Amino acid sequence: MSETPPNTLQYRFDGPEDAPVLILGPSLGTTWHMWDRQIPELTKQWRVFRFDLPGHGGAPAYPGGSVGDLTARLLATLEGLGVQRFGYAGCALGGAIGLELALRHPERLASLALIAASPRFGTADEFRQRGVIVRTNGLDPIARSAPDRWFTSGFAAAQPAITEWAVQMVRTTDPGCYIAACEALAAFDVRADLGSVGVPTLVLVGSDDQVTGPAEARTLVAGVPDARLAVVPGASHLVPVEQPAAVTDLLVRHFSTAWQPGFEAATGHIALPAVQVQAGQVVVPQQAGPVGEIAAAVPPHPQEGGPDPYEAGIKVRREVLGDAHVDQVLAQADDFSGDFQEYVTRSVWGGVWDRPGLDRRTRSCVTLTALVAGGHLEDLAVHTRAALRNGLTPAEIKEVLLQAAVYCGVPAANSAFRVARQVVLEETTPQV
Question: Using the 8-state DSSP alphabet, how is residue 33 labeled?
Fold first, then answer.
């Protein structure tokens, strides 16, 4: 345990003092106890360092307003302990800290695991609205809804003690620190920087995660040069708690085989070594309980003579428009419209939206303007939601529509504002 000044974090060590250090970073609203069931196995090889976010788990309530600030506090804590290089595994907000370490302090990082993580967590308004809820009603509404976000319904029903533990863990968090952490996630966006992550990276996600699910995980794998994907079946957002054996096994295998030497070593960067391969995938042998598969990273864009652009297109289409919308559209396709939907997926989403020349925020701006000009209000509603998913704020969408009013006419913009306003209200009003 630790004495905790304002610029450091509350922490604990487990495991042999002479072992390499492995850091486990928590999710928003949790404490270091979310990793309890990983500790017995991990401490056989590593000295495990766990920490609490400010105001979580009884830690002093010194709010951290950005992921960079939380990362700086972690490094200050490690400096005081003489820890220079380490492996790092982080869940959700803890994963954002891991990405910040990889991008801003790569010399400290030997290997990385990102669990239930994303290069951008939803929309900024989503997290700012969560702060509004806490300021108005305290943490009780957030705490009561935590099991729905964190666990599958079957697990929550079968494990009432763990479910209640989750509720109490959020309920006892300092509200000001929780709001500050929400602000940190609202401002976090490293999508353009993923190619600079230079350490072996495991991207691990629960198959049923509705917060940062497989689509976000695949975005990380497509962007990080040396990344592998592990999808754990039967798990939601707090996968280390819901499927501890599977997560532990995946972490042991990753950090045992992908511990990169320091930058000063003559060998420099090393690739993730191959382990057991079946049908083109690195797999984990079966054990009690579900275990995820670790798949090799794939190029983010189809290569000439490579896979059909439909595969890339359906991936981008789902990432931009959301699974629910795409599933509905494809389910409605029949013999008459099916060829058209296939054309749209292959040519529009796999051929244009997947091109690297413009980022998705810019493509959303262009698309909104074109839809206003054409008076395509139904598609405007769909792409207003897509713009929010792509990182545009409501204020930025408003500016796009104002710009469109100048060149497309006030009547067209009037209709567009009416449609976009309703979508923004629906998407940013918290569900409690």
Answer: G
CB atoms inside a 10 Å sphere around CB 171: 15
Which residue in the block uniquely carries the two structure tokens 């509720």?
167
The sign of the torsion formed by the CA atoms of 74, 76, 81, 82 equals: positive
Contact predicate 260/191, CB 8 Å: no
Using one digit for the tens of pLDDT, what is the confidence trace for 363-388?
999 999 999 999 999 999 999 988 88
Q: With CA atoms as reference, report the closest residue to 163 among 151, 175, 173, 178.
A: 151
Residue-wise pLDDT for 55-89, tens only, equals: 999 999 999 989 999 999 999 999 999 999 999 99
Three-state secondary structure call for residue 139: coil
The partner residues of 112 in beta bridges, in order of sequence, read: 88, 201
pTM of structure: 0.65
Pairing of strands 21-25, 86-91: parallel
CA distance 96 to 68: 9
If you ran DSSP here, which 8-state letter would residue 243 be given?
A: S
**Mean pLDDT across 171-183:** 95
Burial grade of 283 (CB within 10 A; 0-12, 13-18, 19 or more): middle
